[in-house]
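In response to the reviewer comment on reproducibility (Comment 2.3), we provide here a single inverse folding case reported in full, input and output, so that an independent group could reproduce the run without further information from us. The structure tokens appear first.
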């Protein structure tokens, strides 16, 4: 009578892809658009660019490390 309940339905597993919002590029750095610039302005722009680059790089590295580890764990579970 309950024979139909004994069959199992295969469930496909799918690890989620990286959302497009996370994998977007970091964006452009500030460019000095004039031939002469004060040293203080130059240092401000260089400092800002340096900070932007390292912040973006750290976020991307952390995300990639997390994603790779989660993918490995997901693939180990069968």
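Designed residues, in position order:
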């Amino acid at each position: 009578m309950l024979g139909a309940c004994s069959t199992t339905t295969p469930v496909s597993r799918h690890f989620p892809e990286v959302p497009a919002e996370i994998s977007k590029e970091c964006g452009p750095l500030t460019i000095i658009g004039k031939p002469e610039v004060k040293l203080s302005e130059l240092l401000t722009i260089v400092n800002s660019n340096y900070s932007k680059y390292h912040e973006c790089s750290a976020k991307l590295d952390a995300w990639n490390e997390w994603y790779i580890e989660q993918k490995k764990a997901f693939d180990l579970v069968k």
